[in-house]
Specification:
Rossmann fold; 15 strands; nine-stranded mixed beta sheet; about 25% strand; 10 helices; about 350 residues; Dihydrodipicolinate Reductase, domain 2
Length: about 350
Amino acid sequence: MSRLRVAGVNFDHMHMGDNLRFVHDHPGVELVGVCDERPERMESSVEAFGLPADAVFTDWRACMEVTQPDLVILCPATGEHALWVERVAEFGVHVLLEKPFAASLADADAIAEAMRRGGGKLGVNWPLAWYPPHVTAKRLIDEGRIGYVQSVNYYDGNRGPLYHVEAKIETTAEFRADEKAKSWFYKREKGGGSLLDYLGYGATLGTWFMGGVSPLTVTTVADQPAGLEVDEHSITVARYETGLCRFETRWGTFTDPWTHQPQPKCGFEIVGSEGTITSYDYEETVRVQTRGCPGGEILPVDQLSPPFQDPVQYLVHCIEGELPVEGPLSVEMARIGQQIVDSAVLSSSLGRTVELLD
């Protein structure tokens, strides 16, 4: 079987470097091109992966026509997700779209329709979906260890989107001061803000843990500091038939969770009818309470194996096996997450509880 050809297009989000590393490390694919309007944003990837000059583009259409990829990795600003998917989908390619799904439910549906017309598979990548503790928590839920899931509490974020670039390399104070005024992360029309950056994680993985159930109503409060167009902290309460879920997003945690877990810890607390699970980002164990062991037990996280270690492995597996994309990466699961996000944005703007949007 010939190797799948992969191109990375639009480097707005620093996760592009991480995703291209997954491509580089996969024996069944070939990185044939990268493209961004700002060449300096591609420099580290070009150097890291030894890309020749004729594989580096600033014109996206030229990149698509010359490299003829099978799979395109997209990392644009949230507000431009629909635009970029519509651009590349017409070439009939498969797409790995870096989180979040979209800036709005209308954009999410436009993305799904563009992919339907193009005929390729779409995977919406949520990096938390590949964290061993969360994968372990889902396995325990599916095994019935805590009964049916009634509610999920989620808290996540980091010190801020400008504190690091690809591969979690820390930036300088000078960089952050210079970049903040022009970064898309702080532009409302580009889909900036902690709510759009992180709520989709909690809403989508929370939906995954709850077996695809949707909430009835959503109530959200967002804090928007003076001088900023976007929020840096939000709290969403979603009401389900089984109870309440809390989803909290934060730019401004005391530490970044990949170096030192902040307090509150980043991750999930999952409450079931017969027990509970705590599953925190980057940790090597999960804690499980059950009626038979109310004092709780500490369990090691699962060791992930190919093709379930990263989004590139998984999407290539689905493409080659002609399998549906499932779980948090699926359009179906991510769309419920987007409904919660859109409802949260509306609730915050109105200052009241709203019914789930559709």
